[in-house]
Write a sequence for this structure.
């Protein structure tokens, strides 16, 4: 038992030194290759700590070897620009002046719901209050709002149609039926709801509508019975 504790303390000290040498980014937002290296280090460190039959030196050498690899890849990432996009990836602009870029969402294995969740986490609730939004190569989300964005989100928008499908739960929250929104689509010249990438409606009657491969548009409607939420 004492031997395991001593081995664990030694591995802990080595890992602490190695992680500090890797820099601050390694303990913050990591690039994909850094995440892989971190997972490998964790796995390699556990083996000699748990199994006393494995020489402690093997674990230390393995961790140091990973550290050397990390420094080599980091150097390539910084010095060789063409390799940077291969090693770390590129930012993906998922909202632009035309609205949501469905291609970029699919490329990153995301959907409209994921995007809206990221927007809400960043403090933005209306899709039309954003000029640009992107996912950085390390997975963090950034958004550039319009100048008067606070005045554009006075009521919580609900996603009514997401990638051609009605959201039954949000329909129930609005108290308005599917037929009501299908009527709105017909009035806007949309033949089928399956052609809609996203449709949101807020409690004050503002509708955000974007057909697939088309530019978004917003307009206002009067809900039956002056309904609000």
């Amino acid at each position: 038992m004492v031997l395991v504790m001593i081995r664990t303390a030694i591995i802990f000290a080595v890992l602490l030194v190695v992680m500090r040498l890797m820099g601050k980014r390694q303990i913050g937002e990591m690039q994909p290759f850094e995440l892989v290296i971190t997972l490998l280090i964790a796995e390699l460190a556990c083996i000699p700590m748990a199994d006393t039959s494995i020489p402690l030196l093997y674990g230390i050498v393995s961790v140091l070897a990973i550290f050397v690899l990390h420094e080599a890849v980091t150097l390539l990432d910084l010095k060789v620009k063409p390799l940077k996009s291969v090693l770390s990836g590129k930012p993906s602009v998922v909202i632009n002046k035309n609205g949501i870029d469905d291609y970029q969402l699919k490329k990153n294995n995301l959907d409209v719901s994921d995007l809206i969740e990221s927007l809400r986490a960043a403090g933005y609730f209306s899709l039309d209050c954003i000029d640009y939004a992107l996912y950085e190569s390390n997975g963090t989300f950034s958004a550039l709002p319009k100048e008067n964005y606070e005045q554009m989100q006075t009521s919580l928008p609900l996603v009514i149609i997401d990638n051609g499908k009605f959201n039954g739960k949000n329909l129930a929250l609005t108290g308005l039926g599917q037929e009501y929104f299908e009527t709105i689509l017909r009035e806007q010249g949309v033949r089928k709801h399956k052609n809609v990438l996203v449709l949101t409606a807020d409690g004050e009657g503002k509708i955000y509508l974007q057909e697939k491969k088309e530019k978004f548009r917003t307009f206002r409607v009067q809900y039956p019975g002056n309904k609000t939420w």
